[in-house]
Specification:
- The structure holds two protein chains of two kinds.
- By secondary structure, chain A is an all-beta fold.
- Chain A contains no helices and eleven strands.
- In chain A, a hairpin with a 4-residue loop joins strand 7 (61-66) and strand 8 (71-76).
- Chain B is mainly beta.
- In chain B, the strands form two sheets. In chain B, strands 2, 4, 5, 6, 9, 10 and 11 form a seven-stranded mixed beta sheet that branches.
- In chain B, strand 4 (31-38) and strand 5 form a beta hairpin.
- Chain B is globular and about 40 Å long.
- Classes of the chains: A mainly beta, B mainly beta.
- The A-B interface holds A 31-32, 34, 36, 42-46, 49, 51, 88, 90, 92, 94, 98-107 and B 31, 33, 35, 40-45, 48, 50, 56, 58-59, 90, 98-107.
Chain lengths: 114, 113
């Protein structure tokens, strides 16, 4: 089982609709969770972080975390063509020695259709 | 401007010829990390560093070396590159604390022939 799993897509969403991206993780000790956006040929860019169960909103983006189900999601409201990118889920695990290990999923490619 | 700077952006080299990819950050971050990104495999961590002189292996450390002699710099060394190290490499840094995410450099596309 992969440590962080995402549906690779592509996910196509009409402009103005809600895009929903999902991620599951295997290690119950994981403590913080991140969503990155990566445009083709560019580096990943941090867009959301979440540490507690529930929802966290930032503008058009909402991250949702359910630690019991080991599930993280990202909702993008009022999707715009500029949201077309690959979205990477990342999970942070702290070891007993204090080392942090950030593990990424393989990403979901999102296309917003005008 | 707060940033992570990698050099070079593109590099083509031959098998066995030692190379170094430099990485520097100006944010006084404790953590620095190297990732490689390959199609279908995503971002995989090569090495990371929690602070000066403190480094540890990630998921795919074979064939790579790192050093952290200064807080701002974290070079990646390929002593004897092989074609399977052809990849897109990213350096990243972050402040201490689990709730901080990494800031990534622009990437280095390496081709080993």
């Amino acid at each position: 089982q992969k440590e962080v799993e995402q549906n690779s897509g592509p996910l196509s969403v009409p402009e103005g609709a809600i895009a929903s991206l999902n991620c599951t993780y295997s290690d119950r000790g994981s403590q913080s969770f991140f969503w990155y956006r990566q445009y083709s040929g560019k580096s990943p860019e941090l867009i959301m972080s979440i540490y507690s169960n529930g929802d966290k909103e930032d503008g058009r983006f909402t991250a949702q975390l359910n630690k019991a189900s080991q599930y993280v999601s990202l909702l993008i409201r009022d999707s715009q063509p500029s949201d077309s990118a690959t979205y990477l889920c990342a999970v942070n695990l702290i070891s007993n020695f204090g080392n942090e290990k950030l593990t990424f999923g393989t990403g979901t490619r999102l296309t917003i259709i005008p | 401007e707060a940033q992570v700077t990698q050099n070079p952006r593109y590099l083509i080299t031959v098998t066995g010829k030692k190379l170094t990819v430099t990485c520097s950050q100006n944010m006084n971050h404790e953590y620095m990390s190297w990732y490689r990104q390959d199609p279908g495999l995503g971002l995989r961590q090569i090495y990371y560093s929690m602070n000066v002189e403190v480094t540890d292996k990630g998921d795919v450390p074979e064939g790579y070396k790192v050093s952290r002699k200064e807080k701002r710099n974290f070079p990646l060394i390929l002593e004897s590159p092989s074609p399977n190290q052809t990849s897109l490499y990213f350096c990243a840094s972050k402040g201490g604390g689990q709730n901080y995410g990494y800031t990534f450099g622009s990437g280095t596309r390496l081709t080993v022939v």
